[in-house]
Amino acid sequence: MPEGEPAVVVDGLVKRFGDTEAVRGIGFTVAPGEVFGFLGPNGAGKSTTINMLCTLLRPTGGVARVAGHDVVAERDDVRRRIGLVFQDPTLDGYLTGEQNLRFHAELYGVPRAVAAGRMRQVLDMVGLWDRRKDRVSTYSGGMRRRLEIARGLLHSPRVLFLDEPTVGLDPQTRASIWEYIRRLQAAEEITIFMTTHYMDEAEYCDRIAIMDSGTIVALDAPEALKAAVGKDRVQIRTPDGTAALAALKERFGLDAVLAEGAVTFAVASGEAFVPRLFADLGVPITAVSVARPSLDDVFFTYTGSTIRDAEGAGKGTDRMRMAMAARGRR
Ligand SMILES: Nc1ncnc2c1ncn2[C@@H]1O[C@H](COP(=O)(O)OP(=O)(O)OP(=O)(O)O)[C@@H](O)[C@H]1O
């Protein structure tokens, strides 16, 4: 990567699938060494974006440069400089951890003399050196994901792409994967570009872009995004959620959402607002809670829906995954 060039530069990037505009002219840059997160519900266009940056999908329009090279005109240069860790496992279960890595090293043309030392380094980093002789089929889900991360790092990429690296893992394993990601960022000085729909994970990123319906609706450091919201989140429980929604709109001019039996809305000085709520809502309230802004609230502020609600609206991503799996990731 030429000195001073950003790790990722995207300008006016578009991807259409027939009538569906999955990515609608987005633009951003990622600095070398940054942990950059793409946050959004299913169907927002995160995977489509990451697949274009990894050269697995050809953009319909716009420009993207990764590690100093154009993703269309210099596809092979980009491929050599990136590592991929995707949601779908692509390890061979009947091979040992070590054999999986060796196969990958050969695929990427890592010189033999370098490969052995590098293999030890990456296996140590993810805590799997002692298990390297065991078949991957005997590994736990978290160990497999760690091995995939080690594999993605084997050829010393400048940018590591992680598409939902911890999806389907238990919270403890997710936390340990994050520890590894942070450690490797420090050790390897690589840029990490990841997608997630876990709000708590987005907190680990240096900056996050919130994506919704193919566009980036907000982009900043998590703390800055939260500070910009400036409102508290109030959640009430009531026997009649629909009536509460209507009353909040009518009496206070507030837009609220009803999800999982709770009514949620954002308001400045939430604690001071609660007495008014009880006095004037006109709908019985059985419980109330007030919380400071979280990334969920940031998401709600920019998209007008909670991330879980928005997920219900996503469609076609399974088809996408099946297509990707059929085509092969590399
Ligand atoms: N190969 C495809 N053919 C047709 N439509 C597609 C294809 N891939 C994605 N889409 C559509 O593009 C939109 C964005 O999908 P994408 O998978 O990028 O979202 P996402 O944010 O990554 O969601 P997820 O979190 O589920 O991975 C969706 O409407 C999806 O249906």
Describe this structure in words.
With 330 residues, the chain is of the alpha/beta class. Helix content is 40%, strand content 25%. The chain is elongated and about 75 Å long. The two termini are 21 Å apart. Residues 312-330 have low confidence and may be disordered. The structure holds adenosine-5'-triphosphate.
Task: Give a quick precis of the structure.
By secondary structure, the chain is of the alpha/beta class. The protein has helices at 46-53, 75-80, 97-107, 112-125, 141-153, 171-188, 199-202, 222-229, 241-252, 270-280, 295-303, 307-313, 317-327, and strands at 8-17, 20-30, 35-39, 61-66, 69-70, 82-85, 159-163, 191-196, 207-212, 215-220, 232-237, 257-259, 262-267, 287-291.
Give me the secondary-structure category. Answer: alpha/beta
- Helicity level: 40-55%
Following the backbone from N to C, one meets helices and strands in this order, namely: EEEHEEHEHHHEHEHEEHEHEEHEHHH
The unreliable regions are: 312-330
Instruction: Tell me about the largest β-sheet.
Output: 6 strands, mixed
Number of helices: 13
Adjacency order of strands in the biggest sheet:
6-7-8-3-9-10
Q: Indicate the mean pLDDT.
A: 85
Q: Note the beta-strand portion.
A: 15-25%
Number of strands: 14
The N- and C-terminal alpha carbons lie at a distance of: 21 Å
Shape: elongated
Bound molecules: adenosine-5'-triphosphate
Work out the radius of gyration. Answer: 22 Å
Domain ABC transporter: 8-238
Subcellular location: Cell membrane
Membrane topology: Peripheral membrane protein
Keywords: ATP-binding, Nucleotide-binding, Transport
